[in-house]
Task: structure prediction
Amino acid sequence: MNRLKTDKRTQVIAALVEGNSINATCRMTGVAKHTVLKLLKDLGCACAEYHNKTIRNLKVGRVQCDEIWAFCYSKDKNVPADKRGTFGFGDVWTWTGIDADTKLIISYLIGTRKASAAYEFMQDLASRIANKFQLTTDGYRMYADAVEKCFGGDIDYAMLIKIFGTSGDSPESRYSPATCIGCRTGVLSGEPDPNHISTSFVERQNLTMRMGMRRFTRLTNGFSKKIENHGHAVALHFMHYNFCRIHKTLRVTPAMEAGLTDHVWSIEELLGLLI
Result:
């Protein structure tokens, strides 16, 4: 990687953040696979470190949280017996928290879907926000205990619980989600504004993740084979999303809207984190 020119590294990263797989990136840029993976590792670590250091003491009004499924190595049902129960083999969940106003990804965590992961995620979210705010999650029960432990009563917290109909068994509907036939809300703490009890922005971010990272694309063989590379790809994605990618509604990047930077970062500037 030390001998790879800046323009070539820029091509590699640009391909990765636009949803190309590792092998496709190699074919497009002519860079060896081990070099692409080394660059992903180094830049992913740098992005995670910068996010951890910079996304702090935020003033936010509304936050939405959700968790998105993926898998590593293989799906749970296909994990070999000697690897069962080991994190990084089978289901992997990415927990995300987004500022509904600036669209900034405040916090993310790669882990299981257990209570311990929910608590760790909420603890990290709380450490990055400096004021009382309104929080909305879906109806997953692990959120309730985690929010209570991390925030106590110092938060306006509500759950949005969606009610789904039964999905059809026809070939046309096999891979389609069940139809949402209604919603109900539950206030768990404080006085959240009923007009802003929503998870729409964080659910749209789930789509952005699936479109922007080949590892999250369903029904392909582009899934992560190693949990370490999965983490590096997620860190790179969120750094690019926050600082480099102009939001179509905001007309600026989320980091600019949040006051964390005054310009749109280029890929070259992103690569500057390696220095």
